[in-house]
Design a protein that fits this description.
Elements lengths: L2 H20 L24 H4 L5 H11 L5 E6 L2 E6 L2 H10 L1 H4 L13 H5 L6 H11 L5 H28 L3 E3 H18 L12 H10 L3 H12 L1 H7 L6 H21 L6 H12 L6 E6 L2 E6 H31 L2 H17 L6 H6 L1 H13 L5 E5 L4 E4 L5 E4 L4 E5 H5 L18 H6 L18 H18 E5 L23 E6 L3
Parallel strand pairs: 2-9
Antiparallel strand pairs: 1-2, 3-11, 4-5, 6-9, 7-8, 10-11
Helix pairs in contact: 8-9, 8-21, 9-15, 11-12, 13-15, 15-18, 15-21, 16-18
């Protein structure tokens, strides 16, 4: 037998072994009599996502829509069976009722030794380490802390108006709002998280803007790292791919510790995110290098400086992209609805007159129509389009049709937020932008858990109120000073980028800004 024949046989055997491995679970849902999506060899139900025909958010929404009337749907990510949850009672059980005992952890898996920013941040932390860090960081986002940071956001709102004046003059009134809102939220995050004037609204190539932009820029390696961490954690553990590059890691690490060192030395206080971190670090004796052990709920946790650097990183990343994208979606919808703009402007003016033209925290709470507009934006365009959890131990699912399903420990579950938010069962004519869906009366008539822009339960987004504050203040400053309308190049419908996990449009959204004469 020649070496060519031997090589041929080896290749055939290897491919056969590979096929058998990836198809071993192909009948997993069928033998359990669960409705499921037929898997594609090797790729499961991810073929169209990997080929970039559709983004993962819309892909899960399409499955949600296709299986109307079923409480859950069996799906496959590569060779691993997973479950897409449709029934809202089951959503409640997984995210809230049974969360602590069975569904505390997200699926995302990053090796913190290889990627400390990706593995140590609160989004990906698991178990007792997550509980400890959540309890330490929660006080950072109380109402009192929000009030203390509001004046910092206000200053960025004023800079936003100056920037629009300059850009609209240069381009005859037309402004690219995705870039505009990204620069605004960069300034907000830099100021509130690090006490730094990043000047992104003045200089689009400012260092902070460049670093934040690089976090969300697509690269094949970064995409593979993110994809395996969410949908193939076993592969992530084998290949140890890095999601956050060295430049970003060093920038956040150096910025955090140098800022803390400066404040400690000069006795500077800003009542912002850094001050909160400093209090925790001082109390627990944590240094920039080295580590310490901390007792928490009977567990001994190993904590080092990067555990808090990672929280600063996730505050940057999670506070930047969702707020920026939500603002751009809101402005796009408002550009076609001058009636909604006028109603918002009237409410804003009325409330500010009551508060001596001061946009303070209490004034924001009274702007109910503004809140309805932002809520409807997040309903139609949830920036985080799905929620994921993993079963920590065997779990019995009892659905509304009284069927029981044993969900094995380690099985991933997904909830299509985009699917629920655009389901006509909960929202009549879901493609229509209608803020009145969020009157108190209409909210009370809807089932619980039909609105999940920040997730729900113990792992709900910790910085949701901060993000909303930044979005609302930005919109207030824009609407008080401009009428926003479509321009010649404004798309009549949005095309979504197929690469990122977060909901994002492909290309820019140019809009026209006309100064309001006062």
């Amino acid at each position: 037998m020649s070496w060519i024949s031997i090589l041929f046989v080896v290749i055939i055997l290897f491919l056969l072994t590979l096929y058998l491995y990836f198809s071993k679970n192909v009948n997993y849902w069928k033998i359990r009599n669960i409705p499921y999506v037929e898997p594609f060899p090797f790729l499961g139900n991810l073929k169209d996502v990997l080929l970039q025909k559709v983004d993962i958010g819309h892909h899960l929404k399409n499955i949600h829509d296709k299986f109307k009337g079923t409480p859950y749907v069996g799906i496959f990510f590569f060779d691993q069976p997973a479950l897409l949850i449709r029934d809202l009672d089951l959503v409640k059980n997984i995210l809230v009722k049974d969360s602590y005992e069975y569904f505390m952890d997200r699926i995302m898996n990053m090796d913190e030794k290889v990627d400390p920013m990706g593995g140590k941040n609160m989004f990906s932390l698991k178990g007792e380490k997550w509980r400890f860090m959540r309890s330490k960081m929660t006080p950072t986002f109380t109402s009192v802390k929000m009030k203390n940071m509001l004046h910092l956001v206000q200053h960025c709102g004023e800079e936003l108006v100056t920037c629009i004046d300059r850009l609209s003059t240069e381009a005859g009134g037309s402004v690219h709002v995705k870039d505009l809102t990204a620069r605004y939220t960069t300034d907000v995050i830099a100021s509130c998280a690090f006490g730094i004037e990043s000047n992104s609204l003045r200089d689009p190539e400012a260092e902070f803007r460049r670093i934040l932009r690089s976090i969300f820029q697509f690269s094949p390696r970064k995409a593979l790292a993110g994809f395996t961490s969410f949908f193939a954690p076993k592969l992530q553990r084998i290949f140890k791919l890095r999601l956050i590059n060295e430049e970003v890691t060093n920038f956040v690490r150096n910025t955090l510790w140098r800022t803390m060192e400066y404040r400690e030395k000069n006795g500077t206080t800003r009542k912002d995110f850094i001050d909160s971190i400093m209090q925790i670090v001082r109390k627990n004796g944590i240094q920039e290098s080295g580590f310490t052990y901390i007792e928490s709920q009977g567990h001994k946790l190993k904590i080092d400086g990067d555990d808090f650097v990672a929280q600063a990183y996730i505050f940057l990343a999670a506070g930047f992209e969702p707020a920026s994208t939500t603002m751009s979606f809101a402005l796009y919808e408002l550009s076609f609805r001058p009636d909604i703009q006028n109603q918002m402007r009237e409410e804003i003016t009325t409330v500010l007159n009551k508060f001596n033209n001061d946009i303070d925290y209490n004034a924001l709470q009274e702007m109910t129509y503004l809140d309805m507009v932002v809520s409807e934006t997040l309903r139609k365009y949830p920036v985080v389009p799905f929620v994921d959890r993993v079963a920590s131990k065997d779990y019995i699912i009892t659905s509304s049709d009284e069927k029981n399903l044993l969900l094995a420990a380690g099985t991933s579950v997904y909830i299509s937020v985009l699917g629920i938010h655009n389901d006509p069962e909960y929202y009549t004519e879901p493609n229509v932008f209608d803020p009145l869906r969020f009157t108190e009366e209409n909210k009370n008539q809807r089932p619980h858990y039909a609105y999940l822009p920040f997730g729900e339960g113990p792992r709900t987004c910790i910085g949701a109120r901060f993000g909303l504050m930044g979005v609302k203040i930005g919109l207030i400053h824009i609407l008080l000073n401009y009428e926003v309308s479509p321009c010649e190049n404004t798309p009549t419908s949005l095309t979504f980028d197929t690469k990122p996990f977060l909901l994002a449009t492909e290309g820019e959204i140019p809009l026209h800004f006309k100064r309001i004469r006062k």
